[in-house]
Amino acid sequence: MRILHILNHTRRLNGNVHAAVDLACAQVRLGHQVYMASGGGDFDHLLRERGITTLLVDHERKFSKLARSLIRLNGHIRKFDVDIVHAHMMTSAVLAFPICKLKGIPLVTTVHNEFEKSATLMGLGTRVIAVSDVVGRSMRRRGVAASKLKVVLNGTIGSSRMEGRSGEPKALKSPSVLFVGGLHPRKGLPDLFEAFDLVHEEIPGAHLYIVGNGPHRDQYTKLVASLKCAPAVTFAGSIGDPYPYMLAADIFVLPSHADPAPLVLSEAREAGCAIVATAVDGIPQLLEHGEAGILVPPRDPSALAKMLIHLLKSPEQITAWKEKSQLRIDYLTIDRVARETMDVYRSAIPSGKMGV
């Protein structure tokens, strides 16, 4: 099958880029011809190494540029005679829709960020993929017909992005609590800082590591500096591969307020982390509804602190939850994601028009 993925860019900034890159590489392994149209970025070299043709399509939201991008995208689709177009972001879906409609090519969209109002536009797809059950229910409430909606739960294990990574744990101060993700309000970091201040009072030797970057970094470093726990908090910044941190951490924590299906939980489970996360959006599904990780209420620093203190005072419980993180972990492979996505494609392509 000839597959064209389209997304705003291929930079390492957010999870939907990682998901699209992982999927494209896995589809090549299944024997398909894959193209990636975007504004370019960090992952282009990896994509080309895996045999994926990278195509430049600017997604800047200015009418003149989008008009040129529409013409360019149309040329790529015609030149490569693609069977399916898969859009991963709202601008991508809007660009691809008129071309696919005119040419009779199925458009598949994936809803990564359901919390954005613009996610409704992903309903333009012939088929719409939701990255978790919660996202699927939300899109149905927005008017997307159940007949064209399919849930394909995120998974990262076996990702091409992870090939050649270090299996050596990072040297961390113990006991350690780790957060990995973007420094954005929806990730709930102020809750974590307030909770860790309580943890630090009870367990002065505990240390918190924050891996990631984002527009609120300065705000968060100032917030932490005002707390008693400040000397025990490390902002590690953006790390190309946080896996060594996950291998070393005593507890991995994700205090999100909104998170459709965070890839980082798949990665943390692969690393064998004991996980504490908030019971919002797709997080419970990724943690087997509490069997593979501990769920706590969102926006409740005291409840989070209580659970972290409980675990840090009970090393045997940390060990037990590390073992539980491996429950049904094979379901979180990128190969499973790729196979289920190919099934969605086949359901969208009229019989007799499939290239491979």
UniProtKB/TrEMBL annotation:
Where would I find the Glycosyl transferase family domain in this sequence? 167-326
Q: Does the keyword NAD apply?
A: no
Enumerate the transmembrane spans: none
**Tell me, what's a Pfam family for it?**
Glyco_transf_4
- Keyword terms, alphabetized: Glycosyltransferase, Transferase
As recorded in UniProt, its EC number(s) are 2.4.-.-
Residue ranges occupied by any Glycosyltransferase subfamily 4-like N-terminal domain in the UniProt entry: 19-155
Q: Name one GO molecular function term.
A: glycosyltransferase activity
- The keyword rRNA processing belongs to this UniProt entry's keyword annotation: no
**Where does the secretion signal sit in this chain?**
none
InterPro entries in the cross-refs: Glyco_trans_1, Glyco_trans_4-like_N
Q: What is this protein called?
A: Glycosyltransferase family 4 protein
